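Exercise: predict the fold of this chain.
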Amino acid sequence: METLVREDMMEGGGAASDNRRTIQWSSVFAGALAAGAMSFILIGFGVAVGLGVSSASPTWRDASAALALLSGLYLIIQAIISFGFGGYIAGRTTRPAPALATIEDDGERRDGLHGLTSWALAVLAGAALLALLGAAAIDRSPMRSSASNTSAAEPLLSYELDKLFRAPRRAPNIDLREARAEAGRILMTSSSHSGVSTDDRAYLVQQVAGLTGLQAPDAERRVDALIADSKTAINRARRNSIIVAFSVAAATLIGAAVAWAAAVAGGRHRDGEPLPNWMASSNRFHRNPRAMPVP
């Protein structure tokens, strides 16, 4: 008789253990959707008030380092709020562990795993959405049809190229795309260790004088000024790119830890238990009434 009872308990414990280790995808998807929605709201608000980590505006590269750091900090804060909200939803909606698997550490690990999985799903969904939007933008770009007449400098140094070939009078039907592309590739070398070579500078002076009608001394002054401006713009763009990369990486990694902790908190609220000591110093979230001391 005892042998049969032990076998039943072992079989029941094995089934409970399997159920305990099963991912409940409905809770994971709910947490990922909640995190994505909250992130969309917060990022939209940040962009509206000027705290976006990047912008299509040509004046964004002139932003100060303090504004770039503030934008990166806001990105980290919104990741904490968004992934915390999504992780809490994932942990709160997860079904509690079976009665035979109520080990506290294992229950927290189970809830935290759901929060971490919802974080991973939200990150992958966001990356896929950005990839699709980027591919659609490239396909619709008018510069794609004339890739030979464009360069990587055109989006970054478009204002400098406008100033470089600005002329009070110019004959109609003059195509400057090839000249702008070539000048942009030359100006991109201004941020290198050696800078713009003497031959490239002389060629730019010749091009500017021929296309704008300026005298040689005026063309030289314009080229020298725009080489310096291009170097400054490239350095600022590189600085902003570093801040964006660091902010995205930090926000993503911190979001993983926050999603785990929030899922653990959601699971404890679901079970009516207090938060662990490392998350709270009191059990004010405890739903079960305390037993009154017997006199």
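Check your answer against the key: Residues 216-271 form the longest helix (56 residues).
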